[in-house]
């Protein structure tokens, strides 16, 4: 019964994997599909929102045009007289004091087209400049979001490569264990080893099977996550077309470039806050606007037998608006200084992160040499012990220890290759310059 339960336990991951269609992919194909990632789509919409804010500032150059049609019915003396005057229907009898003081009901319908053209609006000019800088910052933040997703995709792709490497190591180990297991069983039949030796081999075989199931689950989890990053169906089992191997060393920078996308975005934010502060200061100055209107009047709906126009210009100067404008200018000044401090702190933190990444890369580089040597040594030790065991010169426990050590060193080496490649990739991400 126990053996049946174990067989069912081992078969579950295999059955789950069988439900997936295996699709071979390359890193280039994966990176080409990240544009459908939801995080990137969100950043694109943020850019469009910033562009919308910038387009709103066109109002400081373009005219404002409104049209309206109004109908009234009144016995108000002033309104009645003014309506007849606008309709150009006044007669001498309308100046009769009795009619002026107590007019009969009159209807008036007016169609009006108004134009307001800004001429001088200094605070609006700086607000437009701030909106443009915010748009540039948003575009750079979107670029940085793409870089982050690309880094995560490449990391996940390498994790999937590592997962298949682990499967390969464990399957080779399983074959070795099965071969040794058959050898021990034959020796047991000949009375050359004890039953406890056979049981130890069974335990080791079970351990390998268990590790294989966990490794297959890891492949499914990593494959599904990579599908999510590409915004695709998770019912496909992805498999890299290439195997995990050491990437060649590219030139690695040791200082954070100020032209990096996220840093440039913060720089544009500082420029935007500077313009906002200047706009708040310019709000103390007067504004010059031109205006005009064309009006049609009649006592019948949607008619216009009488017409007239008005054109002119006005200077508006808000001399005192309580302390609102002073407080607004003070707030924008504080936000400007705050953005400068945040920029300096971000540069320092980014350089600190890069220094840590460089040191980690050097550590992993050294570890790679040592783990490779350990694999070679443990492989040779296993070969020697296997031969000595066949000659009856080694215990089964020593053979198992050598076999486990060799498998462990292979897994550690593959993990180190992954760490080495990702450490190099992370440094390149930290020192990547923006497109602007």
TrEMBL record:
* Keyword terms: Cell outer membrane, Membrane, Transmembrane, Transmembrane beta strand, Transport
Q: Tell me where in or outside the cell this protein is found.
A: Cell outer membrane
Which GO MF term does the entry hold, naming one?
porin activity
TM helices/strands, residue ranges: none
| Region forming the signal peptide | none
**Out of the domains of life, which is the source?**
Bacteria
Q: In its UniProt entry, what is this protein called?
A: TolC family protein
Gene Ontology cellular component terms for the protein in this record = cell outer membrane; efflux pump complex
Gene3D superfamilies to which the protein is assigned, alphabetical: Outer membrane efflux proteins (OEP)
Q: Which family does it belong to?
A: Belongs to the outer membrane factor (OMF) (TC 1.B.17) family.
Q: Which Pfam families match?
A: OEP
The principal location of this protein is membrane
């Amino acid at each position: 019964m126990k053996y049946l339960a174990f067989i069912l336990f081992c078969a579950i991951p295999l059955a789950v994997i069988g439900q997936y269609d295996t699709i071979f992919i390359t890193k280039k194909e994966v990176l080409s599909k990240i544009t459908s990632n939801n995080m990137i789509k969100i950043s694109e919409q943020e850019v469009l929102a910033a562009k919308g804010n910038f387009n709103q500032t066109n109002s400081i150059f373009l005219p404002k045009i409104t049209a309206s049609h109004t109908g009234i019915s009144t016995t108000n003396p002033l309104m009645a007289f003014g309506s007849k005057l606008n309709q150009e229907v006044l007669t001498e009898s309308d100046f009769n004091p009795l009619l002026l003081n107590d007019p009969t009901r009159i209807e008036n319908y007016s169609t009006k087209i108004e134009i307001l053209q800004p001429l001088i609006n200094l605070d609006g000019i700086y607000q437009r400049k701030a909106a443009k800088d915010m748009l540039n910052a948003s575009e750079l933040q979107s670029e940085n979001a793409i870089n982050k997703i690309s880094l995560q995709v490449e990391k996940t792709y390498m994790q999937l490569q590592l997962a298949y490497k682990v499967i390969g190591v464990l399957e080779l180990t399983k074959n070795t264990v099965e071969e040794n297991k058959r050898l021990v069983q034959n020796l047991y039949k000949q009375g050359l080893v004890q039953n406890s030796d056979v049981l130890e081999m069974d335990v080791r075989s079970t351990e390998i099977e268990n590790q294989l199931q966990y490794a297959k689950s890891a492949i499914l989890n990593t494959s599904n996550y990579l599908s999510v990053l590409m915004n695709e169906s998770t019912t496909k089992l992805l498999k890299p077309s290439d195997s995990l191997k050491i990437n060649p060393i590219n030139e690695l920078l040791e200082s954070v470039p100020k032209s990096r996308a996220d840093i440039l975005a913060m720089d544009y934010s500082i420029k935007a806050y500077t313009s906002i502060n200047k706009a708040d200061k310019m709000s103390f100055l007067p504004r010059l606007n031109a205006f005009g209107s064309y009006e049609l009047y009649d006592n019948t709906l949607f008619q216009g037998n009488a017409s007239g126009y008005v054109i002119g210009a006005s200077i508006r100067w808000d001399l005192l608006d309580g302390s609102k404008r002073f407080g607004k200018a003070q707030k924008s000044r504080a936000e400007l200084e705050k953005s400068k401090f945040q920029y300096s702190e971000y540069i320092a933190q980014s350089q600190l992160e890069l220094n840590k990444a460089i040191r980690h890369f050097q550590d992993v580089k050294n570890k790679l040499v040592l783990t490779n040597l350990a694999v070679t040594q443990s492989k040779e030790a296993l070969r020697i012990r296997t031969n000595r065991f066949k000659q009856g010169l080694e215990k089964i426990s020593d053979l198992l220890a050598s076999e486990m050590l060799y498998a462990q060193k292979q897994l550690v080496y593959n993990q180190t290759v992954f760490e080495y490649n990702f450490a190099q990739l992370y440094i390149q991400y930290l020192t990547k310059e923006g497109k602007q």
